[in-house]
């Protein structure tokens, strides 16, 4: 009976440690994605779109040749 309780306790401790490790990795990934999001949200999107609209197309379609 003692070994059953000891094994259940060991499994619970191992599961807790694995859960903490997985949680730490998930939080790290979320932090990276949040930094990327903040970097993208500070870009001047309307200005970039205006620059692209001003560009002239320099290529021709194959059907026009």
From TrEMBL:
It comes from the Bacteria. Keywords: Cell cycle, Cell division, Coiled coil, Membrane, Septation, Transmembrane, Transmembrane helix. The chain crosses the membrane at residues 6-22. The keyword Coiled coil applies. The keyword Membrane applies. It is a single-pass membrane protein. Pfam families: EzrA. It is found in: Cell membrane. This is Uncharacterized protein. It comes from Alkalicoccobacillus plakortidis.
């Amino acid at each position: 009976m003692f070994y059953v309780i000891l094994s259940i306790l060991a499994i619970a401790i191992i599961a807790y440690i694995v859960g903490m490790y997985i949680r730490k990795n998930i939080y790290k990934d979320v932090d990276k994605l949040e930094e990327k999001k903040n970097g993208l949200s500070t870009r001047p999107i309307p200005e970039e779109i205006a620059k692209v609209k001003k560009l002239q197309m320099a290529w021709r379609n194959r059907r026009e040749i």
